Amino acid sequence: MPLQNIESLSGDRMIGYWKLSEPYDLLLEQVNLALEDGSFGKITHETKLREWASTRILSEAMLSKWGVQYEGITKDDWGKPHLNQTDIWMSVTHSFPYVVVMMDKFQPVGIDIEAPSPKISRIAHKFLHEKEAYAKTDKISQTIIWAAKEALYKYHGRKRLSFREQIIIDKFKNSEHGAISGRIIENGIKEEHQLVYKYVYEKDYLLVYTC
Q1: What is d(CA 89, CA 81) in angstroms, rounded to the nearest whole number?
Q2: Are 60 and 67 in contact (CB under 8 A)?
Q3: What gap in Å lies between CA 158 and CA 43, rounded to an integer?
Q4: What are the C-alpha distances in Å from 30 to residues 53, 56, 93, 103?
Q5: Residues 19, 100: Cα–Cα separation, whole Å
Q6: What are the phi and psi torsion angles at 26 (to 5°)?
Q7: 20 to 30 Å CA-CA from 206: which of 44, 92, 117, 124?
Q8: Over the stretch 21-66, which tens digit does the pLDDT of each residue have?
Q9: Rounded-to-integer distance, Cα 153 and Cα 136, Å
Q10: The listed CATH number (3.30.565.10, 3.90.470.20, 3.30.70.60, 3.40.50.2300) that belongs to domain 3-107
Q11: What is the pLDDT of residues 144-183, one digit of tens each?
Q12: pLDDT at 121 over 60
C-alpha cells in the first residue's frame, strides 16, 4: 500500500502517512537518485532501504501540495534531515511498516510514532526523570513520554541530549488524544514546548509531535 494520507494541520504544517508493502526495487524506481546525497548506498538492511525510499517519495508528494519542487533530502552533521533548496522544515519517523513525515514552512518540527511494548517498560528507568515518576507503572504513559522525548530530540536536532536529565515531560491526562507540556534543558536554560499525542492505525500506535 503506497501513500495513505496527507493531513493538513494548518496552512503551514502537514503530516504524511505511508504503510509499506512495496518491495525496495519498486520503491527505488520512483526515486530520482541524482537529487539524493548517496546515503542509501550505506544502508544494507532491506527494511531500512524501503523506509529510505518511501520517505523521499512521500516528501515529494507532500511538497507538491504546496507547489514546491522536491530537490532531495540531506542529513546534517547531527543526522537531522533537511529538504534541499527550500527553507521548509521536516521530521521523519519510522515504525515498520509505517513511515510518517511532518513538514512546517516556518519552524522546526519533531515527530515520533511508537507501538506500546514491554521493551519500553524495560528501559523506562533509563529515560524517566524523577519528575516523571507518575509513569513508572503505566506502559501507555511511558510510551507517550518516550515518543514525546524522541520528538523533542528531533526538534532540537543540534547535539546529544540526555533523555533522562535534559528532556522532561509534565504530567498529563492519559486519553485517546491530548496535549503535553515539556522542556529541553541545556546549559541551565529551560526551553518550553507543547506537543500533541494521538492514537493512529486502529489505535495500535501512538503518534506524538511538536506544536
Answers
A1: 9
A2: no
A3: 23
A4: 8, 9, 20, 21
A5: 9
A6: -70, -40
A7: 44
A8: 999 999 999 999 999 987 878 888 999 999 999 999 999 999 999 9
A9: 21
A10: 3.90.470.20
A11: 999 999 999 999 987 789 999 999 999 998 888 899 999 9
A12: yes
Return the residue matching grid coordinates 523521499: 56
Q: Which three cell numbers stand for residue 199?
A: 492514537
Between CA 172 and CA 174, with CA 173 as vertex, the angle to 5 degrees is 110
Q: At residue 1, does pLDDT exceed 70? A: no
pLDDT value of position 2: 65
> Cα separation of 89 and 95, whole Å?
21
Q: H/E/C letters for each residue in the chain?
A: CCEEEEEEEECCEEEEEEECCCCHHHHHCCCCHHHCCCHHHHCCCHHHHHHHHHHHHHHHHHHHHCCCCCCCEEECCCCCEEECCCCCEEEEEEECCEEEEEEECCCCCCEEEECCCHHHHHCHHHHCCHHHHHHCCCHHHHHHHHHHHHHHHHHHCCCCCCCCCCEEECCCCCCCEEEEEEEEEECCEEEEEEEEEEEECCCCEEEEEEC
Do residues 78 and 116 touch, judged by C-beta distance below 8 A? no
What is the rounded average pLDDT for all residues in the chain? 93
Pick the CATH number of 112-210 from 3.40.640.10, 3.90.470.20, 3.30.420.40, 2.30.29.30: 3.90.470.20
